[in-house]
Amino acid sequence: MIIFLCGQSRKAYALRAMEAPVKTREFAQAYVEATSLIGLDLRMVLVVVTGSWIFPHAGSPGQEKRCLITEDDGAGRNELYSECISRLPPSPSAASETVVVLISEASINDLPGEDVKPAAMLSACFDVASWFVDTLPHAEVPSETGLTKHQYMAFTLGVFAAVLSFGLSQYGMSTAADARRMEAAITGITIEKVAEIWAHEQNLRELAQTEIMNAYMQNKPNMIRQLSGAIRSVSDLPEAHSSKEPEGVLLHALTHCTRLLLL
């Protein structure tokens, strides 16, 4: 079963998987499988938004960063959360928290067929990592890293996503080729996010993405290499191969990757 939300009416409805469009069905199935493997005791509920994208602060259709909602998260969306949850069948699992993840149908339709499953797995890794990053206390950022607080949070998100992505390959869900593509994508997304935050902090908000990256490389010539090397080192950690105490694995990976930024 896949839950849909009409952007105009904000009403949710459920369809059997076979009744959904092919790409949507494939994306949802891969996403649900991935989050069930790496969910950190979360129940991630994928909701596909049809029609108008209703979260202006999360981007426009085709460019949105998805929208995650939890109950009583302070965003004033409890009614929408309840509307989506009401369409779920009873679940025997007792997850610590249920997270509603909204993504536009248009963004799924824009994916090439061969990219649907990898994109769903990548989304799952970033969504679970995003929730976990938000639950962490804001630790002191070592000044030697050259990152500000918000840049470091973007780096942390990339590290956690990389650990979870590696976990999917260990569970056999992704092939070696998929794992390499996902690692490259996570590295690229993390570097772009850090560069965007840097540009915002430097009052360079009007620059296009390419201009931001060019300016960042000129001002921080070694940082891209350091960020890339740190995130790619995750798969070399022996602890990343273990499914025991996943939260501890994430925090250990962050400590390891942060240390690499200091070299």
UniProtKB/TrEMBL annotation:
It comes from Acetobacter malorum DSM 14337. The lineage of its organism: Bacteria, Pseudomonadati, Pseudomonadota, Alphaproteobacteria, Acetobacterales. This is Uncharacterized protein. It comes from the Bacteria.
